[in-house]
């Protein structure tokens, strides 16, 4: 089963629902994070540029996700999630900034 963006949002809703079906949660997690040999390897961590845009209009760009995560004080998965959901960062050195991963 190949997962898509709707599956991610559905999983997020199910996890936050108190009486959710555990089997459905398990199936969605497997689809989202399970191994799939159809997909190419995700080795873009070292070569993907990242842009932080602050509320005051300041923009900071980094050439790699690793460099961006070190400077912001956040890990790769937090940056990915903030970019995907288009929400500003709440913690770290760049709190309040929105994240764009430029070549996904």
UniProtKB/TrEMBL annotation:
It comes from the Bacteria. This is Uncharacterized protein. It comes from Enterococcus casseliflavus (Enterococcus flavescens). The lineage of its organism: Bacteria, Bacillati, Bacillota, Bacilli, Lactobacillales.
């Amino acid at each position: 089963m190949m997962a898509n963006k709707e599956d991610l949002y559905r999983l997020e809703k199910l996890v936050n629902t108190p009486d959710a079906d555990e089997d459905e949660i398990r199936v969605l997690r497997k689809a989202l994070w399970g191994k799939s040999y159809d997909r190419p390897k995700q080795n873009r961590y070292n070569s993907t540029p990242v842009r932080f845009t602050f509320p005051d209009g300041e923009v900071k760009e980094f050439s790699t996700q690793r460099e961006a995560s070190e400077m912001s004080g956040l890990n790769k998965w937090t940056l990915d999630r903030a970019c995907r959901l288009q929400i500003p960062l709440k913690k770290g050195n760049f709190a309040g900034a929105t994240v764009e991963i430029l070549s996904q």
